[in-house]
């Protein structure tokens, strides 16, 4: 019937009718062209002109105004996902005014229309009209009569009753002029003497970046990505957009559960807006935070998702095409029962029933095949023994070594590597980020090596050593393997040192490393050296994890990490800690206290960052490929002098995988190059480190004689140790 409209989501071509015909908005076109032109001019001709304080100021103001959009007008006012007290509402209104967008009522009304009529002719930024239209073409055209009609039906009474929103909307033009343009331009000029023209251009760039970050949700967030929660929605999960918008890019989840204040059920994803809201909730300014229940999320993902949800258990759900018994018949033998005998299990201290096991079910059609993994407690090489094991350790270890059958401790399951599908998707953002770091670091080294000051080289060497202690003595030997205990001050120091290294969250690092030890050189190993030297060194960061790795990672016990308040503080503030301690502080020190030019200080710090990263990765690649097998020739890890030099003492890897709970990581302790051991011993002397676990010399000797390749005794002579 004429005049009626079908609001179903369809891919059909949109036909111009009287209901959706619209004209051009020339005022908006003028402003968009003007500010984008000024930004491009600044990037091409004036990018190196500002003072370093101006860079920091505009970066801060970018975050400040961005949070006004994400935490304020979007999650608070548009979706009412949480409630805020008056001081927080005022702060968010100021932040939103700094972003230079529309009035709060205008923004909220359009966004509620977008959710209610998404991908229909009533959608203000309907992506079916094209990528450009969804990005900012919708601003360049007037709203159609249909959108205006549906907009009048949207309930925004909650905003009309809010005095803060009413004040913002009434004084919108003045607030926008002051907070978006006048204030951010005046501050650099007044406080550190920046040129007016440069300050204005830089602020114009900041304004344009904020706009395009928000626009990317309408374009990239509705066209490029996965749909783990609902394939019937155009909205997608797009990680680069999430980074640009402080956590708003998990858009398929957001459209499936728009009332959830997190906009994602993956709490460990990049989501600073959620963490800011959590912070205000802790101090009582935010409350009534709404979340979707795990059961609801799981049902939605299983019913209508595309199978890419990372928390849904079961390999078939995650990668249905890669793990079917029809296409991989030999996978029926993927998990092989291994009954490993040990005389200790027959004694009263440790009954046989304590041997661990885990089950994995692989589905194919209507049938399932379940196989059991038998993991002997003393072969769980990723974790130290429990208290009972420690009590028995010294007097029974020799018989344990003698009585173990000559079988490989790792891998824990036998499989034909040719039958394993390693074709996981590439993580393009990581590829870009890692490539950029290496290109800039190497290029900066070549260009700036003759210009950098000797004091700068010394400073970044010391800073690199601090980073190394955070990785080796901190996240590796303390938090992953619990090879010694540390009091609160030492744990805080190690946390700060690790922040300087600029790596993953402590929780992620520990989980991946425990999985690596427990399933070393298997598909469940995050950096499986059987997949090649490049993969084990850096390639594992460039591809998504193998489904088995994800599955086994969920089973790793991380209760000690979850209960560590220092670790939780670091992980909750991960982005801020990494940015400040890995990039801002060392660059600032080199610039202000040593007197380096800003670009030299930045590139020198980036080179230090690259060296620290590759030093850590060398343990996964070099120390699993080149070297001796002094203690166990049946496992891949080696004793690698090169990896040891690059990682300040972590390269004695054959010993470490044989005795992972030894805090020294080497039988010869400080007699070989092992600075983390010296670090731990020093703090033990101060009384800050305690309960250091070490393997007796005679036990290491017997292990080397029984399983080693004979090179252990050569190393003993070189270290100058006598029995």
Strand order of the largest sheet: 1-2
The tally of strands reads 6
Distance between the termini: 98 Å
Helix content: 40-55%
Beta-strand content: under 5%
Mean pLDDT, all residues: 80
Radius of gyration computed on alpha carbons? 29 Å
Structural class: mainly alpha
- Extract low-pLDDT stretches: 1-19, 313-413, 719-723
Q: Largest sheet, if any? A: 2 strands, antiparallel
Please tell me what the overall shape is: globular
The number of distinct helices, counting runs of at least 4 residues, comes to: 31
Description:
This protein is mainly alpha-helical and 723 residues long. Helix content is 54%, strand content 4%. The model is unreliable at 1-19, 313-413 and 719-723 (pLDDT under 50). Strands 1-2 form a two-stranded antiparallel sheet. Strands 3-4 form a two-stranded antiparallel sheet. It has a two-stranded antiparallel sheet with strand order 5-6. The N and C termini lie far apart (98 Å). The chain crosses the membrane at residues 23-44, 56-77, 174-191, 197-217, 428-449, 455-475. Residues 52-268, 457-677 form the Fatty acid desaturase domain.
């Amino acid at each position: 019937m004429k005049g009626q409209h079908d609001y179903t989501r369809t891919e059909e071509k949109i036909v111009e009718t009287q209901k959706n015909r619209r004209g051009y908005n020339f005022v908006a076109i003028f402003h968009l062209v003007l500010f984008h032109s000024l930004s491009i001019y600044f990037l091409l001709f004036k990018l190196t002109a500002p003072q370093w304080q101006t860079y920091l100021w505009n970066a801060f103001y970018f975050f400040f105004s961005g949070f006004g959009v994400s935490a304020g007008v979007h999650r608070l006012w548009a979706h009412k996902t949480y409630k805020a007290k008056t001081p927080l509402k005022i702060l968010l209104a100021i932040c939103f005014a700094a972003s230079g967008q529309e009035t709060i009522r205008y923004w909220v009304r359009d966004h509620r229309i977008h959710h209610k009529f998404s991908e229909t002719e009533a959608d203000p930024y309907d992506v079916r009209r094209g990528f450009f239209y969804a990005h900012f073409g919708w601003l360049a055209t007037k709203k159609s009569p249909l959108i205006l009609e549906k907009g009048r039906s949207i309930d925004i009474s909650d905003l009309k009753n809010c005095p803060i929103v009413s004040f913002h909307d009434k004084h919108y033009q003045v607030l926008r002029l002051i907070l978006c343009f006048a204030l951010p331009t005046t501050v650099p000029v007044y406080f550190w003497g920046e040129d007016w023209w440069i300050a204005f251009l830089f602020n114009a760039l900041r304004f344009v970046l904020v706009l395009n970050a928000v626009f990317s949700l309408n374009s990239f967030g509705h066209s490029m990505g996965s749909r783990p929660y609902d394939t019937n929605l155009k909205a997608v999960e797009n990680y680069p957009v999430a980074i640009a918008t402080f956590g708003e890019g998990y858009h398929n989840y957001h459209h499936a559960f728009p009332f959830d204040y997190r906009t994602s059920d993956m709490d460990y994803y990049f989501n600073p807006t959620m963490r800011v809201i959590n912070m205000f909730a802790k101090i009582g300014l935010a409350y009534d935070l709404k979340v979707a229940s795990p059961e609801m999320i799981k049902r939605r993902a299983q019913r209508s998702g595309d199978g890419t949800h990372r928390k849904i258990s079961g390999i078939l759900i995650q990668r249905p095409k890669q793990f079917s018994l029809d296409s991989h018949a030999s996978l029926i033998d993927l998990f092989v029962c291994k009954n490993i005998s040990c005389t200790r299990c027959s004694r009263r201290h440790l009954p046989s029933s304590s041997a661990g096991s885990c089950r994995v079910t692989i589905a194919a059609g209507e049938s399932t095949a379940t196989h059991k993994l038998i993991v002997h407690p003393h072969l769980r090489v990723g974790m130290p023994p429990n208290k009972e094991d420690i009590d028995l350790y010294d007097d029974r270890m020799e018989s344990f070594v003698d009585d173990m059958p000559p079988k490989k401790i790792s891998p824990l399951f036998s499989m034909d590597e040719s039958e394993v599908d390693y074709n996981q998707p590439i993580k393009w953002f990581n590829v870009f980020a890692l490539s950029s770091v290496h290109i800039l670091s190497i290029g900066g080294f070549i260009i700036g090596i003759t210009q950098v000051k000797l004091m700068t080289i010394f400073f970044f060497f010391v800073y690199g050593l601090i980073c190394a202690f955070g990785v080796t003595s901190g996240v590796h030997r303390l938090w992953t393997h619990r090879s010694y205990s540390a009091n609160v001050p030492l744990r805080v120091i190690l946390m700060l040192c690790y922040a300087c290294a600029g790596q993953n969250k402590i929780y992620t690092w520990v989980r991946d490393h425990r999985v690596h030890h427990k399933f070393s050189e298997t598909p469940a190993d995050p950096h499986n050296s059987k997949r090649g030297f490049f993969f084990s060194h850096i390639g594992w960061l460039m591809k998504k994890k193998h489904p088995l790795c994800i599955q086994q990672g969920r089973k790793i016990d991380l209760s000690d990490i979850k209960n560590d308040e220092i670790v939780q503080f670091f992980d909750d503030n991960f982005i801020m800690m990494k940015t400040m301690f890995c990039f801002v502080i060392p660059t600032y020190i080199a610039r202000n206290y040593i007197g380096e030019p800003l670009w030299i200080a930045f590139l020198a710090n980036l080179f230090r960052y690259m060296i620290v990263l590759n030093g850590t990765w060398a343990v996964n690649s070099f120390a699993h490929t080149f070297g001796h097998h002094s203690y166990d020739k049946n496992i891949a890890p080696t004793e690698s002098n090169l990896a040891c030099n690059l990682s300040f003492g972590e390269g004695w890897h054959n010993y470490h995988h044989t005795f992972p709970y030894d805090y020294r990581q080497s039988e010869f302790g400080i007699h070989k190059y092992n600075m983390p051991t010296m670090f731990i011993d020093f703090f033990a002397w101060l009384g800050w480190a305690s309960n250091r676990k070490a393997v007796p010399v005679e036990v290491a000797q017997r292990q080397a004689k029984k399983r080693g390749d004979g090179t252990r005794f050569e190393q003993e002579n070189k270290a100058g140790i006598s029995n």
